[in-house]
Design a protein that fits this description.
Length: 74
Amino acid sequence: MATLLLVVLLVFILQNTESVIVRFFGMSGSLPLGVSMLLSAVVGALVVAALGAARIAQLRRTVRRSAGSRRDHR
């Protein structure tokens, strides 16, 4: 399955080789369209994963505090 995904990504990148200018926070550079779209997707996935991990950690802390306070009241 991973090999198939890799092949699909390579075909996508090779078919989208037109150069585009990317501007971000005052920086700019030129990248192939396929590469810039792939980087955008990877960065977006990393942001979502980081936010999700932070939320899970927050919920775990809340559960631990709640369980600790229940033990104290018995």
